[in-house]
Amino acid sequence: MPSERAMKTGSACPPPPGPGKLRLYSMRFCPYAQRTRLFLAAKGIQFETINVNLKDKPDWFLEKAPLGKVPVLEKDGKIVYESLVCNEYLDGIYPDKCVTPSDPLEKARQSMVLALWDAKVIGFYYKLMTGKEDERPALGKQFLDGLQFIEKALTQPFFSGNKAGALDYNLWPWFERLCMLKPIGVELSVDKFPQLTAWMERMLQLPEVKTCYFSPEAHAQFGKSWMAGSPDYDIGLEE
Amino acid sequence: MSEKAFKTGSAAPDPPAPGVLRLISMRFCPYAHRTILALTAKGIEYETVNVCTVNKPEWFFSINPLAKVPTLQHDGKVVYESLVCNEYVDRVFPGRKLLPEEPLEKARIGMLQAIWDAKISPNFYKIADKDQEGREDIIKVFKEGMSYLEKEVTSKTFFGGEEPGFLDYSLWPWFERLPVLEVASGFKLEEAEFPKLFAWQAAMRDRPEVKMHAKDTPTHLQYLMSRKQGNPDPDAGLQA
Lengths: 239, 240
Known about the structure:
Chain A is of the alpha+beta class.
């Protein structure tokens, strides 16, 4: 079993995966890679993982994926990158247990919610983590106001209906990390976010979410190391 | 229906009649241009309501909370985000299919789009500004992005094959505006460096769906200048 430790600049290019084998290039704490890990877990697909050091990227990784980001999928010489592209690709090559909605309007609706997320929420998420203390009250308000758009889009037990689907997995990673905002005073209250808080409880029960889960402590530890400029990609791994 | 853009303070137009597809657009927006090309290529009938994308009409926010063009309205349904609109109409309406079925081919479109979004579109208008800080490096990244596209144009005429497809229409609006960069700042791509992209551009310019909606460089420049001067004129070039 290959090591989970993140490969970095100067490392030798790993041999390609065997015929028919699926490989994921990832980083254990990357929320975008987690989207794809959730799809893989939900679909019950076998795969191997190579974690990459995103601060000191190996040259061989940049040759495979010119944008130098995870997640990246590799199978039988084919490379796919971009989390949402990877996820749809997985549904394309493993068509049973399809996670992406088949109805065009529902697919469009899910994409539009992600556009709302990108426009109204995610920017403030990162600004809150990296911003100055006196900026936090204003940023926190913008973040929570933006999150109301997402709250309003959740009208069923899951974003995808009675069961979790693409949009649930594509949003989940940031909700798993919400605990990181607690120390700076940003939390989701049940009265302001009744749908989202209940959804979070439901998601935490799902086996695929548990498979990909890291505890608030692990996320906090990684976040701290990242903000200090020395991200520790191997937190929690045995020496 | 008038082509003049609705602005802040305008009264909302009546909703589209049953069965009518309405596109909320802006005549110079490259993102809306993507959807106009897809609709035309597929022979889909639609009506257009133009809005000012800088001084947005308030009523637009209740249709699309992001109040961005393109936005489609159809029998109570609303779809926004240019590529979401294009995929939606491709699947729901008849006409030539713009998206491939094969998963890797579909993924390739997404990956090229990501390279475009990372290296080309954020830098596009920065290049027009001769005083732009770090312009040399920006141009380098821009050309790097273009070289990925150059590699992708293979033996077929278009990214989509023998006829333009999803990616051709997603990218074309910026190529139509490339001459603006030359007029504004002298920047142009060299045919010797990008022979296949040049051939592709010529082939695209010849397409009826492209010609139907093409605007000339002076008109594009007129709009851009109006924006730069703080008085955006989405009706530039329209007869009074």
